[in-house]
Amino acid sequence: MTQQIPLDFNQMVVYILTIMALGTVGAAALKSDKSAFWWFAVFISAVLLFKIPVVGRPLSAEALAGAGVGVVGFALLRQLPARGAIVSSIVAILGAVIIDELRVGTTWLISNFNWIPFKGHLTSTVIGIVDTLIGAWPFFALSILVLHLRPQRPRRILVWGGIGVFVGMFTLEWNQQYIAGRYPDITDAVLALLAWWLPWFYTPLRQEIRRHHYPDLKGNLRESG
């Protein structure tokens, strides 16, 4: 008789918050497309199906439940005004990052803090490198959502936001020295900062965001001001 693996509630919450926020970013990319919800649902389903041969094992209960609840959560976000959906998604991203950083790992080993950026990453497997880069996407999404709010003092937001991202991630990584099964690494803080900066310094993307009003997630264009 096989032993039943308990549900990792924290991992499920990370899935839920991440998918809700990703849906809002996707709606921004599709602008006024009324079918954004269905495109997003198909995209999440495809990602989950693609993950099976890549990981080499069935999808976890956390992934399935998190994806389902996350898509429903995104559907609820579609009922909010644009600004409310953006702010809610920003909170969701920050919540997902904090919960994920504080989770206990799969082993009982404790690691010292790595001060050398990208140490070991160049010799890691392709999957390991991709996983590291994927870990920085929340801050890219966070930056895009903040730009959609059209801050009145963008340079100040760029600088102080970057400081907040780096200090916040550094603090969370530093704390992983005391969490079993985690590898505290300065690289994650550096990548988070670079991901935050990218939309601000990549002019075509920044201009595209400023050129159109953020869509009401129900499908009607409405200025979030």
What does this structure look like?
By secondary structure, this protein is an all-alpha fold. 66% of the residues lie in helices and 0% in strands. It is built from 9 helices and no strands. Helix 1 crosses helix 2, helix 1 packs antiparallel against helix 4 and helix 6 packs parallel to helix 8. The chain is globular, with a radius of gyration of 18 Å. The C terminus is likely disordered.
Salient structural properties:
mainly alpha, disordered C terminus, single chain, 225 residues, globular
Shape: globular
What's the helix count?
9
How many distinct beta strands?
0
Radius of gyration, in Å, reads 18 Å
Query: How is the biggest beta sheet arranged?
Result: none
Q: What's the helix-strand series?
A: HHHHHHHHH
Helix vs. strand class: mainly alpha
Into which percent range does the helicity of residues fall?
55-70%
State mean pLDDT (0 to 100 scale).
85
Q: How many angstroms separate the termini? A: 59 Å
Uncertain runs are 219-225
Short overview:
This protein has 225 residues and is mostly helical. The protein is built from 9 helices and no strands.
